[in-house]
Amino acid sequence: MNATHKSSAQASAQASAQASSGNTHAAASGNMHAAAQPTAAEPAAAQPAGQPNTAEPAAAQPAGQPNTAEPAAAQPTPSQQLSTRQLIGWLTGITKPVHGPLLISALCRAVQILADIAMFALAGYAAVAAVVGVVDPETGAGSTATGTGDGSFGFSWWIVAGIAACAVLKALFRYLEQFTGHYVAFRALEILRTYVFSKLWPKAPAVVIRQKSGDILASLTRDVDRIEVFYAHTVAPLAVAYLLTPALIIIGGITCGWKILAGAAICLLVSLCIIPYLGFSSSLRATEKLLGARADLTQHVTDTLYGMDEVLAFARAAERAEEMDEIGRQVSRHARPARFASALRAGLNTILSAAGTISVLALGAGTVPAPLLAALALAVLRSFELPRSIEEATAALDASLAAARRLYDISQEPAAVTDGPKELGAGTAEFPQATPVSAREAELITGPAIDVENLSFTYAGASAPVLQDITLHVPAGGRAVILGRSGSGKSTLLHLLVRYFDPENGQICLDGEPLTQFTLESLRRNVVEVSQRNQLLAGTIADNLRLGAPQATSAEIWQALEIAGLAAEVREMPQGVDTKVGEQGGHGRPTGYALSGGQVQRLSLARAILMRPRVLLLDEFASSLNPDLEAQIRAQLAEALPGLTIVEVSHRPEAAAGADVVAHMDRGRLRVTAQ
After folding, report:
1. N or C: which terminus of the chain has fewer CB atoms within 10 Å of its end residue's CB?
2. How does the protein associate with the membrane (predicted)?
3. What confidence category does residue 280 fall into, taking pLDDT thresholds of 50, 70 and 90?
4. What is the pLDDT of residues 197-248, one digit of tens each?
5. What residues form DSSP beta bridges with 662?
6. CB 16 within 8 A of CB 314
């Protein structure tokens, strides 16, 4: 999505410097479908890459800023229709594999807390007994500090042994709790990221167009990380606190007397049932706004970094910095309610903890031996760690739930297209299922005829159609060239051919079968687009070429590079096809071997050839090449794959040479000029 990021910041800078300037082009990925959309009707300089141009003033909105004019903002999101209980049910339903280890973590936590309470109670008892002994206030009988007297509850080394045993148990089960809790958390991260990505992938690229790329990035990274806290530091503390605290109160009241523990019990119950929910709803709403503002900040920073050259060229660095400061102020403003509520709850819990402990000392003074009273007071003091853990979990729970709502919204984003019942090309003798191309199989590739019938299309939210009443016939194995200026709708037509979207009117057929009849996987395996701009992933040239054909052999890779006119240049690189490319350093610049724009385009073409498609869509695929090299590649492609059906869009008239069909696109209307 680098091209999208860069174009977005570029558009923002140009809109600020030249309100009337035009001709930004839409970025689109190549074979991997990370596509952006061209402008509809007239191109506009303020139009961010990847969005249809509706010619509305909102197009000049700076990248990274929240769009308050968006009509859909008033509509409730899918997650807003869920209660908190339903949202937690959705989360736990996805992560069922971690429920067993999560239960073990909760049990370890319970044992660890009980050992902690016992250790402090025994320590308090031993300390006081060693100093003053144990004397019954009513009878005067008891033991002295040296262990003599009539009582049997004085200082004993067995108590010291008990303290040591409790300390060992606490340490052991603390470790086991942390180990199992973090296993659960990291396993849940894996499950959630896989789940959300599996939901996003079939909806691409439409979901990338409807959502800001920075927003999706924030959801897949930071939002998932925030949900990790729900599993590592929320579920087990809540479960143990709500089960163990009432049990301790009941056991303590029965064994020690309700009169002594009355005040402590009231303080514990208030801390358990009331304090955690003070300000929770308001902080949850504020946190949802906070995460949205942070997503805007991520978008703004990403756009600025990838568009740094344009920002500096148009002298807009100070303006972009001010925009970033404003979003940062929004982040701080939305963070205050949650921080205030958390501080309030922590302060009240501290007061209740002190009050409960003091009440035990006050009510037990004169009626309970001093060592027993000290043990009881320290046990009550340590018991407040249970409701305090709820307060700490609640402080992180609002962020986890807000992040979960954002993930739910993205994962439930409706798909622009759905699978059809048929496999395109499956089981045909003309199109073997082996993935890479080879010389002896090249003649077996036979492309289908393409028929576009009365097609019209409008992007969601746009006021004007991008394409109107398009009719086109491309013969089987033929080559069609569509000429037109940037923003006329050429790329959109290619995106409909690969079924990124479905038209609202008309249809597209391959050999008489509508595209909607084919599964998306088989369609996009056989109909492959090569874009003007392409994303390289960090890895070697061979790794990037094998994205669409993982089983491709070295010989097949070199053959594809020969057809794309890149083999000679790759041979001169340091490690040939094992040369690393695509790694991004500062300002989005590659830290691996730097490929030129023309080399990246030819690499994308070679990648598409390796997939052995039946239809090849070329979107300004040679815009960075000189005319001679462009013509040479077309000739090599026609010679190597003569049966391939090709649809090419270009603004260069010379691209039409030798085409079976030539058409011109102007403002969404197509006129066939030669067939």
Report:
1. C
2. Multi-pass membrane protein
3. confident
4. 888 877 777 776 666 655 677 677 778 887 878 887 788 888 999 999 999 9
5. 481, 674
6. yes
What is the CA 340 to chain-centroid distance, rounded?
A: 29
How many Cβ atoms from other residues are within 10 Å of residue 360's Cβ? 27
The structure tokens listed for 269 are 């119950």
- Beta strand pairing call for 615-619 and 527-530: parallel
What's the mean pLDDT in 414-424? 85
Q: Largest Cα–Cα distance in the chain?
A: 117
**Mode of pairing for the β-strands spanning 645-650 and 661-666:** unpaired
As a whole number of Å, the end-to-end CA separation of the chain is 37
Confidence bin at 589 (pLDDT 50/70/90): low
584 closest CA partner among 543, 533, 544, 537 = 537
Going by C-alpha positions, the residue among 584, 486, 581, 598 that lies closest to residue 533 is: 598
Residues with Cβ within 8 Å of 177's Cβ and at least 6 positions away in sequence, in order, are: 105, 108, 109, 112, 236
580 SS3 class: strand
Chain position carrying tokens 């037509």? 493
Among 648, 641, 615, 609, CA closest to 425:
615
The position carrying tokens 């896989």 is 194
Sign of CA pseudo-dihedral 472, 474, 475, 476: negative
pLDDT of residue 209: 67
Per-residue pLDDT of 107-164, as tens digits, reads 999 999 999 999 999 999 888 888 776 545 555 455 544 444 444 455 577 888 999 9
Look at residue 661 and give its three-state secondary structure: strand
Query: Each residue of 160-185: pLDDT tens digit?
Result: 899 999 999 999 999 999 999 889 98
Cα→Cα distances 272→277, 334, 346, Å: 9, 27, 12
Q: 647 with 482: CB under 8 angstroms?
A: yes
Q: Which domains does the chain have, with CATH numbers?
A: 97-134+155-412 (1.20.1560.10), 441-673 (3.40.50.300)
CB contact set of 473 (below 8 Å; sequence gap of 6+): 449, 450, 451, 452, 661, 675
Tell me phi and psi for residue 391, to 5 degrees.
Answer: -60, -40
Decide if pLDDT at 422 tops 60.
yes
Instruction: Indicate the helix (H) or strand (E) that contains 542.
Output: helix 541-545
Please choose, from the candidates 462, 26, 69, 411, the residue with its C-alpha nearest in 3D space to the C-alpha of residue 216. Answer: 411
pLDDT at 18 over 80: no
pTM summary value: 0.63
What is the sign of the dihedral through the CA atoms of 98, 103, 108 and 113?
positive
